[in-house]
């Protein structure tokens, strides 16, 4: 494909690896990150530093952002020093953060008024997917803009899906996270029951990890629980952020999701108990403590 | 294998198909069912009718039961006219109902006192698995008895697992059902969110049915929900029975399982709303009604 002038905002674990693939593909990349040091390796590979999201956007045809919270998305895109302030007519802004569908729609509207296209394109697949360019990317926004950016998505991921208008990418990611929340409480309570009943958790997973109860979570996260491994694949603190967005958006739609609300509360307890930097399997520890005599 | 004198108690949808495989394998089968008519097809194929579980057991080396509730199991095995009263020294009683681990242990103790072995061996795989002899069978009890019965299990299922002492088969089944309960609330809330957000549920499943959120349930039960198909694969009323057993057993172990308890309540609501004979995907209807304006 033709080389494109690309802006990249946010060079954390995910963004750094994803941006690297675009450099490797021969594009010109302008980069900004709140902490400049974290973009150092990308600059060594040819990325050019810009002092703000706005200046990143001034030089780019397609501007990507992948930052933390919706408030960060709002700042790097919509503030006076944000990408939209610098974006040229005809540019595309692609937010790949997991963020609020409502904010995605607002960005689209504000961008549209300036003759700029906007896509919401959150990902799943974690740091490994980012490194190996095997991410799933769920995209919302105008189809024409999607078609323009698709070759760039293909450099970063393997399963690219156009899901509909503005916000549809974020909505899809929310569906994914709601599904994970329910599955996780099933995994954790099942293994807690197994342990209490005196059963070997790995032997239980061998059986229930097949057939009608099977899931990626029981066979991967469940195994880690059985091994006593609570290291992060996906951080508790990030999952709490995502569930918060889903619950906010559901509230906005007058939609009660009692299962998600319950699971969210236990993850909030994991945060309260200082386990925000463990993996999502820390839910097991929360429910285990709930069921233990206090000192 | 050598032909065995087999007793079979319970010829509902599951038991009828399972018993048929043993007839096909050339064994002599003595059969009892509360409703005699439902054993008619088996008698046409050579099974001999007995007027009670006790008389079934008097003629058999291995006695199988697959009935409804733990109270039914107790009656067909432990009552005065039950299988144990008729069983000869050296016989094996195999309860394949999904029933209480605690009851399985009591049956084992009572049988042991009479020189009779007992196995608890609940199954999963549904009516299709029973018909096609592809059931998963989770077995608890003495290993020696398991080894004796294994060739018969192999006529009925494909994934046979010895899980440990008395009750271990039922415990494994409970782990399976607890896992399904959590996964189902995730499936249902995810698809409800999708619908409310204006997304096509099938398109959402195409994406979230892969990767870290994936499960058998989203890809099979989720598809039925998206199709508006609430026909039973697995009945609401049977799942409510199973969850009740799991919650009872958890209570016995002083184990709080808040996710299971919540999901169970919504399935109880499905019962209250007259949907006990729909499939477990009726949970979607319960949560959908929860979120609709009342008339």
Oligomer: homodimer
CATH superfamily of the largest domain in chain A: NAD(P)-binding Rossmann-like Domain
- Helix- and strand-based class of chain A? alpha/beta
CATH class of the largest domain in chain A: Alpha Beta
How many structural units, i.e. domains of chain A?
Answer: 2
Residues in β-strands, percent of chain A: 5-15%
The greatest inter-chain interface is formed by: A-B, 72 and 72 residues
Secondary-structure element sequence of chain A?
EHEHEHEHHEHEEHEHEHHHHHH
Mean pLDDT of chain A: 97
Would you report the number of β strands of chain A?
9
**How much helicity do the residues of chain A have?**
40-55%
Low-confidence stretches of chain A: none
Envelope shape of chain A? elongated
Q: Note the total helix count of chain A.
A: 14
Could you tell me the CATH topology label of the largest domain in chain A: Rossmann fold
Overall radius of gyration of chain A:
20 Å
- Please name the CATH architecture of the largest domain in chain A: 3-Layer(aba) Sandwich
């Amino acid at each position: 494909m033709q080389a494109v002038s690309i802006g990249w905002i946010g060079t954390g674990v995910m963004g750094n690896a994803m941006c690297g693939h675009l450099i490797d593909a021969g594009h010109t990349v302008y980069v900004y990150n709140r902490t400049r040091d974290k973009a150092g390796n990308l600059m060594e590979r040819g990325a050019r530093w810009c002092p703000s999201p706005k200046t990143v956007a001034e030089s780019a045809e397609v501007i990507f952002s992948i930052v933390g919270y919706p408030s960060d998305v709002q700042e790097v895109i919509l503030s006076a020093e944000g990408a939209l302030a610098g974006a040229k007519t005809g540019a595309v802004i692609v937010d790949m953060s997991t963020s609020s569908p409502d904010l995605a729609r607002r960005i689209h509207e504000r961008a549209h008024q300036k003759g700029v296209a906007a896509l919401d394109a959150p990902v799943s697949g974690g740091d490994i997917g980012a490194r190996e360019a095997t991410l799933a990317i769920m995209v919302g926004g105008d189809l024409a803009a999607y078609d323009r950016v698709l070759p760039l998505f293909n450099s970063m991921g393997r399963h690219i899906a156009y899901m509909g208008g503005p916000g549809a990418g974020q909505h899809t990611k929310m569906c994914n996270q709601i599904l994970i929340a329910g599955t996780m409480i099933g995994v954790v309570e099942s293994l807690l029951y197994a342990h209490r009943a005196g059963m070997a958790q790995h032997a239980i997973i061998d059986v229930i990890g097949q057939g009608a109860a099977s899931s990626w979570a029981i066979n991967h996260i469940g195994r880690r629980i059985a091994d006593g491994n609570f290291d992060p694949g996906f951080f508790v603190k990030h999952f709490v952020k995502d569930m918060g967005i889903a619950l906010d958006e559901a509230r906005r739609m007058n939609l009660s999701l009692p299962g998600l609300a319950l699971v969210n509360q236990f993850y909030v307890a994991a945060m309260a108990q200082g386990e925000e930097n463990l993996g999502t399997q820390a839910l097991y520890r929360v429910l285990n403590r709930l069921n233990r005599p206090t000192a």
